[in-house]
Design goal:
DNA-binding, mainly alpha, homotetramer, Tetracycline Repressor, domain 2, 76% helix, 9 helices
DNA sequence: AATGAATGAGAATTCATTCAT
DNA sequence: CATGAATGAATTCTCATTCAT
């Protein structure tokens, strides 16, 4: 088998897609993405049959990576510390990977995502909450759970935005965000 | 701020723009918007020199209307009640004016808004918080204020989304959202 | 109403389409057709929503014109002369309007024609045969009628091809073709 | 004539080409043809330097096969029967080998055939007519011979089309076609 | 040879904006 | 001013052919 479809190239395209979208927005051209990836315009379609497929795959990949940043860090000597460590890992990831965070949000707010991708993105966060719920923190709240998850998600995004916008005050925003979440999930 | 005298046709176009964008997303065609407004495609451009101008104006108009829905209702027999009434008025407005709420969010997440429009939108909420801060509720928190505002904004949007998605449980989400906000701004 | 959609321009496009297809075959580009018509590439689509629509319309128009060339001439002092005059008018039209004849055949043999257009083309010839059948010649044959019509059609096309290919012998081929048809439809 | 030694792979490609063109029309992809032949897209080009070459070769091959179906059968106890047997063999071949017949016609009406292929196709039928002319039937007609050949060819195609379209009436159309031809070539 | 990924010149169509009427 | 046809650059995707493996 000559010149097998390389996973590297596939990843190059995804990375290029991320870069170009972060730069040009969702109207980024497949031609520009291909150029950024260092391949011919037609080659992009060897790896992704349509632009929409590429966009959806990118969303899933980024969302997976983002979630992974959190999952490993949910440890600490007590529940608050466990959650704090997870939160810090999560938001720091976004503050460092600004492009990825930005692109995730662009995609989420677009009409390009399929139901499946969107569900995947939502599901990606779910295990984390299950983890919190079951093992780490005893949720002391009466909110509808789905709503609580979405609120925390929204707060995390705002926190990440702020951290990215003001790297000099990143830690401050990170902690303020955490306090907010902690307040919400604990009975007071 | 705003524009000079907005005549009927301008407003027709803005209203049509809102309808079509809610239906077709931000890729809505100027031709379709004009048709919805009952005018010729070319006429649109005598009122708004570019599509971007139209979009920005629409954002400002909707954001203004949205804020107005809140401002008048900040009354009640105590601080909590005052804020609750304001909150209810605000979120109910969005739950009823789904189209407008949706379009505001689409625009906010687009790359079409100028710095000025975006600043205007952010400013629109500011007086409300000043009002809260100065007259209604004594904020008992140590957060950076700008962050607090944005968090509450984010929570309000999620609340509105939920209310619009589940009209049958609108009240429940509205109250849950309020409790969240109240928790955040009060010392606990 | 400013600059009304001109019928002249529509006809220009159809004429240009005919010219370019005769020159380049069915793969003729919409861009080339537009250029030949002296309009912008986009303007073509104001008049014909898709290339296929243009092609179908062209077929119908040409087929109509071709049939008209025959219909008026079915006169003469006896049946044979009547039919002969019709035949001559028909084949002469094709010999003179070579481009049109060629394009009709290209379209007929393409996969671009809708059932409707094809049916229209078939129907166009039908009245002529009805005319022959009812008023001009008493068909003395036992063939299935539809088959007879198609055979005559096929013979006419071959005759036209020959006449166009050898203008110097056009009359000879025209008469040979006629004798063939006459032989077929008369009892011998 | 034809090509040197055609190995199995060449023939596989030709057969696949026929199948795919019958299914997808002349816009059939070289990639699809290769897949149908069970080889890699690139391999196709080691056997046929260009798509056009493949198409031309296919035409020649099919036309040869078609002619062969007729040549052997020109026997019978008199001229009419001899020709009738040939005609039957010929049209039956097409009615059975619908795909081949269809592809021959598609190619003939395309702009892909070289002068040479077209000439070959025309020549393929010539010997048959020479045979008819010299040995089987004494043609009693004054037509230009080339024209007569083409007319009979055209009639045969129509007959084949009809037979393929209505297998239940194949025999009827076959005989009607024959009578037509017989009428044309005999003095009346 | 065989493979199938890589190439890049098109091709049809869209759409914000202009401008003749 | 209103109209809507005209414009043409831009966009996604295709496909015959090449070429690295």
């Amino acid at each position: 088998m000559a010149r097998p479809k390389s996973n590297d190239k596939r990843n190059n395209i995804l990375a290029a897609c991320k870069v170009v979208i972060a730069r040009d927005g969702l109207n980024a051209t497949t031609a520009d993405i291909a150029k950024e990836a260092g391949i011919a315009t037609g080659s992009l379609f060897t790896y992704f049959p349509t632009k929409t497929d590429l966009l959806n795959e990118l969303y899933v990949v980024l969302k997976t990576e983002m979630t992974a940043a959190l999952t490993d860090k949910l440890s600490g000597k007590n529940n608050r510390e466990k959650l704090h460590n997870g939160w810090a890992a999560w938001t720091d990831w976004a503050a460092i990977n600004t492009e990825k965070h930005v692109v995730i949000e662009l995609l989420r707010n677009s009409d390009q995502l399929t139901k499946e991708s969107r569900a995947f993105g939502d599901a990606a966060i779910k295990p984390v909450f299950d983890l919190i719920n079951a093992n780490v923190v005893k949720l002391e709240t009466n909110y509808p759970n789905d709503f609580l998850y979405e609120l925390i998600d929204a707060i995390s995004i705002k926190t990440m935005d702020k951290m990215a916008a003001r790297p000099d005050k990143a830690a401050e925003y990170r902690e303020a965000g955490f306090e907010t979440v902690w307040k919400i999930i604990t009975k007071g």
